[in-house]
Amino acid sequence: MKYLLLLLSFITWVSAQTSTIMHINIESAVSPASASYLKEAVKESSKKNYDYILMELDTPGGLSSSMREMIKDILNSPVPVIAFVSPEGARAASAGTYILYASHIAAMAPGTNIGAATPVNIMKPPIEDMKKNTPTALEKKILNDSTAYIKSLAQLRNRNISWAVEAVTEGKSLSSKDALKLNVIDAVAQNIEDLLHQIDTKKVKLQDKTVTLDTKEYSLVSFEPDWKTKILMKISDPNMAYLFMMIAVYGILFEFINPGSIFPGVIGLISGITALYSFNMLPFNYAGLMLIILGIALMAAEIFITGFGILGIGGAVAFGLGSFLLFDAQTLQNGVSIPLIVLFSLTSVLFFLISLRYIIKSRSQKIVSGIEQMIGSNARIIDITPNGYLVRCHGEIWKATSDSEMKKNQTAVVESVLGLTLKLKPAKE
Length: 429
What we know:
- By secondary structure, the chain is an alpha/beta fold.
- It contains 16 helices and 16 strands.
- The strands form four sheets. A six-stranded parallel beta sheet has the order 8-5-3-2-1-11, sandwiched between helices. The chain has a five-stranded mixed β-barrel with strand order 12-13-14-16-15. A three-stranded mixed beta sheet has the order 4-6-7.
- It is elongated and about 120 Å long.
- The relative contact order is 0.08.
C-alpha cells in the first residue's frame, strides 16, 4: 500500500511538471479565416488550461485588419504565444513580421526569412502624384501608423526597434541567422523539440506579470480549426473566389440559354453568393470585375451580332485583363494563379466559338416548324372555287390562289403564304 501511494505521488509529480502545449499551424495569407483560427485557439487554451500556444507560421502577409485582430488576441492571451517560422524555406513577410514581433517568443528555423513589412495601399494615387513619384497624404498616414504600431510592439517585447522601423519604411528583410544577431527574434531552432529546449526557463511578460517558461517536459496537442473556419480558409483564397465567380457566371448563362434546366442556375446562384462572400473578405478591384463581365458580354454578343470576330477577340482580351486585375497580389501577397486565368480564358473563347458554330449551322438549316416551313411543300387541290382553290397541305385544308390554271387532284407547290391563303405554282413533273 505504501509503495502504491509513492507511485501515485510520483505520477502526480511528473504530470505536474509536464507542460501542455497547443500546436496550431498558419501557412497561408493572413485573412479573416486565420484570425478566426487563432481566436478559437486562444479561447480553447483558456477553457482547457493549456500552458502555452505554439504557432507555426509560414505566411507571405495579408490583410492589415486581420493582422491587427490576431495581434490583439496574442497580446490579450491568458497563456504565452510562441511563434515559430517553420519549416525551412518558410517566411514571415509583411503582416507576418508584425505577428512575430507581437508574440511572447519569436523563433525561426534555418533558411527562413522575415521582413518586407511596408504596407501596400490598394487605392491608386492621383495621376499628378504618380508623375511626381511622391507618396500621397493617405499613404503617409498609413506608413506612419504602421511604423508606430510595429515600434510599440518592439518596445513591448524588448526587440530591435530600429530594424523594425526599417522593415516598414524601407521594406528590409532578414535571414533567421541575421534576425537572431540583431535581436529581432529570440531563437533559431531546427525543429519544435529544439525550440522548446532552448526557451526553457526563459522569462516573458504576460500582460501585467512576468512568467518563467517551463518547456523541459511537455505534451504537444494539435488544435485543428472547426469546419466553418476550414471553409473560410478555403474560400478566402483568391483562386477559390475566382473559381466560384466563374462557375456562377457560366451556371447562370447556361440557365438563360436553356430555360428550365434548373440545375445550372441553382449551382450558379450558390457559387455566386459564395463568390460575393469571398470578395467581402478579399481586397478585389472593381475595374477587374467589370472587365470580366464586359469580356463575357462581348463574347456573347459575337454569337448574336455579326462582329467579324472583333467582338470575340475584344471580349477575350477584356476577360483575361480583368482576371489579372481582379485581386491586388501586393496587398494580399497572393493573387489568382496565372495557369487558372489562362485556362478559363481559353475555355471561354472555346465555348463561345463552339456556340457560334452551332448557331450559324442552325440558321442554314431548313425550317421545320411554323408557316415558313410550308413554303416549298406539296399541296393537292381538292376543289375549285370561284375565288380560287381548296387544297390539302400537311393534313390541313387551306384556301389557295395561283397565277396558273389548276385542275382537281393536281399536285402544286406552295410558293408563299399570305395570311391564311396559300399561293401555288404547278409542281414540276
